[in-house]
Amino acid sequence: MKTLLIIAIVLTGSLMASPNEHRDDNYRSSSYYENERGEYRDRDDRKGYSKVGVAPIRNAFYKIECGSCHFAYQPGLLPEKSWVKLMSNLENHFQTDASLEAEENKRILNYLVYNSAEKFRDYKISRKIDDSIRRDETPIAVSDTRYFKKEHRKLRRDMVEQKEVKSIANCMACHKTADKGSYEERYINIPNYGKYEND
Amino acid sequence: MKKLLISLTLLISIAEAYDFNPQMQKYMNDLKTEAKKANPEFKGFDYSRGEKIFTSKHVGKRGKLISCVTCHTSDFSKNGENISTGKVIDPLSPTTNADRFVKVKDVKKWLRRNFKDVYVREGSAQEKGDVVIYIVNKK
User: Fold this and answer.
1) Closest CA in chain B for residue A92
2) pTM for this one?
3) How far is CA A141 from CA A42, A172, B6, in A?
4) Count of domains in chain B?
């Protein structure tokens, strides 16, 4: 009986998740490799993706539940193993309690895993994030990934710590189109510093 | 003294008078039953006890002194701000914000989370009832 129930829940979960959440089933396994200095490299950096950014969110339940305290991060910003780890401890989520009912947790985890970075390697950002994570590490913050750190290394402290931004996790403060999955340079506008010019 | 008593009784009757929808009313009744079970002296939810729960500061989950006011402010008709993330929080007052105290599921979820953030433990049935009565009746 109990098993039946669990099966039913899982089934409903995947049914609910499937209609409008497309997934590229032909995704390739990670092409990540490291050089002798421990730096990551893309095997085929330039021609490996056909779309910029990350896939936008199409799941209303996720957007409400994981968008109530902060911007709803796209599933394509972290690999499966990161989402699994993050979702296993929502009671202590970045020093706050973000706990969900077991059934809600399952539904969201299902969505995240189904749409995580390695499933969307045709998107540039998902691909690069996925490639930058080593086998022996499982970051649960996008801002802890090697790719993210590399891209933001030029930001000054005062740009991040000002009250209009507060935290580097506040993507929308600088990336005006982050909620559409678009992080391109031309849509960056750092509060009180203006348009970002790459020198 | 008499005046104070009258206004106190008035306050209590106002407090009990807020019109919850049926599922919320049932939730409040369940909390009441539970509170009575835990404390035979329990008479009913209390606005001023709720106020104290909401406004008093405690060393929270982040190791810093916070209260419910820290994120929700003490004017429930205005926006609050999540101090951990900077995100705006819609007003808490059900008069200003028609989405408040509508779904038991939401109320339960946020009381559970927010008590943990401020008190580093779950709230008791009495505490939850008290604080809800305070929020919905605060002018």
Assistant:
1) B61
2) 0.86
3) 21, 16, 56
4) 1
Cβ separation B86–A91 shorter than 8 A: no
Tens of pLDDT along B27-58? Answer: 999 999 999 999 999 999 999 999 999 999 99
DSSP A51-120: BSS-PPP--HHHHHHTTSSS----GGGS-HHHHHHHHTTGGGBTTB-----HHHHHHHHHHHHHT-GGG-
In the DSSP assignment, the letter for residue B45 is -
Label residue A29 exposed, middle or buried (CB < 10 Å: 0-12, 13-18, 19+).
exposed
CA distance, residue B115 to nearest chain A CA (Å) = 9
CB contact under 8 A, A70 and B85: yes
Number of A:B CB contacts under 8 A? 41
Of B61, B85, B87, the CB nearest to A97: B61
Q: Which tens digit of pLDDT belongs to each residue from B78-104?
A: 999 999 999 999 999 999 999 999 999
**Closest residue of chain A to B105, computed from CA coordinates:** A101
Please tell me the distance from the alpha carbon of residue A81 to that of residue A84, in angstroms, as a whole number.
5
ipTM of the complex: 0.87
CATH of the domain at B115: 1.10.760.10
